[in-house]
Amino acid sequence: MYEHVLAKLEFPEILERLARLCRFDVAAERARELGPSGDPETVRYLLDVAAEAVALLTEFPDVTIGGARDVREIVERAAKGGRLQPPDLLLVLDMIGAARNLRRAFRRIPDGPDRFPHLLEFVDHLGEFPELEADISRSIGPRGDVLDTATQALGRIRRDVRVAHSRLMDRLNGLVSGGKYAAVLQDSIVTMRDGRYVVPVRADSRAALPGVVHDTSASGQTIFIEPLEIVELNNRWRERQLDEQHEIDRILDDLSDKTGTHAEPISRAVEATAAIDLAMAKARLAFDMRAFRPTLWTGAPGSADGHPTRRLSLRRARHPLLDQATVVPIDVELGEDFRVLLITGPNTGGKTVALKTIGLLALMAQTGLFIPADETSVVSVFPAVFIDIGDEQSIAQSLSTFSGHIRTVIAMLREVTAGDLVLLDELGAGTDPQEGSALARAIVSRLLELGPLVIATTHYPEVKAYAFATPGVENASVEFDQETLAPAYRLLIGVPGRSNALAIAGRLGMPPGILTAASGMLDPDEHRVDSLLQDIRRRRDEADASLERARAAEEQAQVLRGSVEQELQVAEGERRNARGEALAEAESDLEAARETLKRLQRDRDSLQIAREQLDERRRDVDRAAENVRKFRREKIRNPPAAAGATPIAAGDRVRVVSLDQEGEVIAVDGGMADIMLGALKTRQPVSALDRLGRVRTEETARPIVMPPPSGPVNLELDLRGYRAAEIEEMLDQYLEHAYRAGMPFVRIIHGKGTGVLRNVVKEVLSVHPAVASHEMAPANQGGDGATVALLRGAS
Q1: Is there a smaller number of Cβ atoms within 10 Å at the N or the C end of the chain?
Q2: What are 226's strand-pairing partners?
């Protein structure tokens, strides 16, 4: 779009705010280069990326691109054979380390590919360079020095340098500390000239110390001499230093070559990091502006007077550059029932701000930015936005305000198409009111023929009447407080505005006589129109107040509903806890009864206990066992699902209340659900399940393999001789082991007797998830004294 359009709507200031929220300088550069797109698919993609960034920072605020550096020029230089210096290599190390950390941070996010697919497309370009990272870390220190650990050769050379230097210093210290040359020295010190160690000698004693002269003092009184006896030591030390520098150069060349071979993927990592940081900056901007993602219009045409393919529906829209705490939001509708909106009202009433708000929010949405408006707002993608706002006069071009506006409109009419958005401020202003009004109506008529969406502001009453009489055109106004003479900055669709000139003049102290005379000169129809407008505004205010009360009541109802649902959950939890406590108490009674029976059986001879008393204790044990079985098998009826609760479906993770186990739903048929409990499959009523959420992808993708039993499993289990209270747990473990062993069926021997054991066996087999069916054994296999259970096939 044209640069002057973006500038007049202050779009560059939005980009500057976005750039300041970037953490990476490359991302900030990209932010300042952004512009609106006219392609709906591109806009949808950009909004998707921004939405993922908002979700990312909301749920994982610690994700960061910390340490990223723009090393594109550095790696390009390395690719061309240039030698990188240690500071350059440290920047490369920072960049590849930041890319690695960012990549791993995204990989640790649960369900990342499903939740952040677009951001992960950038993450795929964040390569890892472990060898290069290790080489640089081993070779370059944090202060930019080449480390001894860079190569073995460098470590050996530096040891030689230290040895040579130590020998040299020992000889020099011996020479200046009381030796035969002490009398000729100016000072007992050792200094350096031209990279070689020297001693200061008095000029008049020059001949007393053989050596090489390297320098003299400014006064000429001191000569700096390298004594002949340390020349060879100096040479040896200097040679070792040169060896060290050559090895450092070789190391830097090697690291530069390795960096150059990775130049392209590192540059891609820089760009990908910038793209992620830019998306996160868009999210931060949305948080700062309290902005939401708008819906892109893709619906069918509305009425015949509306636009066939474009809509604007902004709810509580706010100008993003104004103080979000005090700015008055506006509501705008355009495109469904009319294509042209004419806004009228007094100066300083907020008409131009409303115009800029609409245009700027449209541009923000087409740039992939969230807009400061309610999430129910709807926008269209406009191939172009045309605007005529502000003073167009130019002294240099001898253009008046009127001429400047007309030239802009003429250029606009030559290029505008049916899919565009046109914004016109003070249409027809700056000339004779009668001619300006006629010109304004003619321009609007021409725009109606061309077909774009149009929003224009004006003062002309004739234009208001034109809007009433012309299909496809609608009036609007900015509200004005008659008591305070202050604009309310609210946009009222369907209500034309008033100039309020006489009211403002009266409030400012104009004599009443003049106001009366002016009022008498007005057309009587004007008085009737003003009265009608006042009545319309009064009714609108009443409707708004009613709507506000309804919203407040709805919010209160939602709060109450949430409170009730929470109380229901607490009550259900308490009910389950009470059931658990009752079960624990019943199991405790059973254990006490068993202990009593065992003690009586053990001591019956010594205590001469009657058989009837033992039988009574056995019946106590059976009754306690039955209570425990009753609690364990009791199916708790779930409370009714809360309004809006997600129904149970395949792929959900649920808790089977009757079995107190968690599993995955693999199918739902009517009121019944098939559930995998580990490797076992069971069918349960949906009403007996608690939904815990969706099964994660990695859980469904990995089959659950149950370990086989530790030893062979017999084909039959003999329960004869056991009490009814003792066989339930024994039978449950046996069935689980048999199922894991892949046995098709088992035979349970319980004997005929009184039928108590047989009944317990039937109850267990009826609810066990490993059992497909069961029946009495054939006559030749035990008849009524045994039960055959067919086991389910393992999935």
Answers
A1: C
A2: 212
Residue type, 225: I
Tokens 């057309």 locate to: 523
Q: Strand pairing partners for 749?
A: 718, 786
DSSP 560-573: HHHHHHHHHHHHHH
pLDDT tens-digit map of 662-679: 888 888 887 888 888 765
Packing angle, helices 461-469 and 433-450, rounded to 10: 30
**Burial (Cβ within 10 Å: 0-12, 13-18, ≥19) of residue 618:** middle
Residue with tokens 């107190």: 660
Which residue, among 256, 251, 258, 253, has the nearest Cα to 148 in the 3D structure?
251
With a cut of 70, say whether residue 162 has pLDDT above it. Answer: yes
Q: Which amino acid is at 32?
A: R
Res 394: pLDDT: 41
Percent of the chain, pLDDT > 70?
79
Q: What CA–CA distance (Å, rounded) separates 316 from 188?
A: 85
CA 204 – CA 186 distance, rounded (Å): 10
For residue 81, count other CB atoms closer than 10 A to its CB.
10
Alpha helices in 116-200 (DSSP H): 117-123, 130-139, 152-176
- Name the residue with tokens 């409030």: 507
Q: What is the pTM of this model?
A: 0.62
Close Cβ partners of 168 (under 8 Å, ≥ 6 residues apart): 197, 230, 233, 234, 236, 237
Which H/E stretch holds residue 97? helix 86-107
CA distances 195 to 88, 175, 191, 226, 238, Å, are 27, 19, 10, 11, 8
Task: Summarize pLDDT for 280-339 with one digit per residue, the tens.
Answer: 999 999 999 999 999 999 877 667 778 888 899 999 999 999 887 888 888 999 988 899
Helix axis angle, 724-740 to 611-633, nearest 10°: 40
262: left (phi > 0), else alpha (psi -120 to 50), else beta?
alpha
765 vs 788: CA distance, rounded Å: 10
Contact of 785 with 750, CB cutoff 8 Å: yes
Per-residue pLDDT, 755: 80
Q: How far, in Å, CA of 718 to CA of 451, rounded?
A: 89
Helices 231-261 and 152-176: angle between axes, nearest 10 degrees? 160
Residue with tokens 């060879």: 232
What tokens were used for 753? 């007797």
Give the residue among 282, 308, 280 at the shortest CA–CA distance from 293.
Answer: 282
Per the model's pLDDT, the better-predicted residue between 653 and 626 turns out to be 653
pLDDT tier for residue 126 given thresholds of 50, 70 and 90? very high
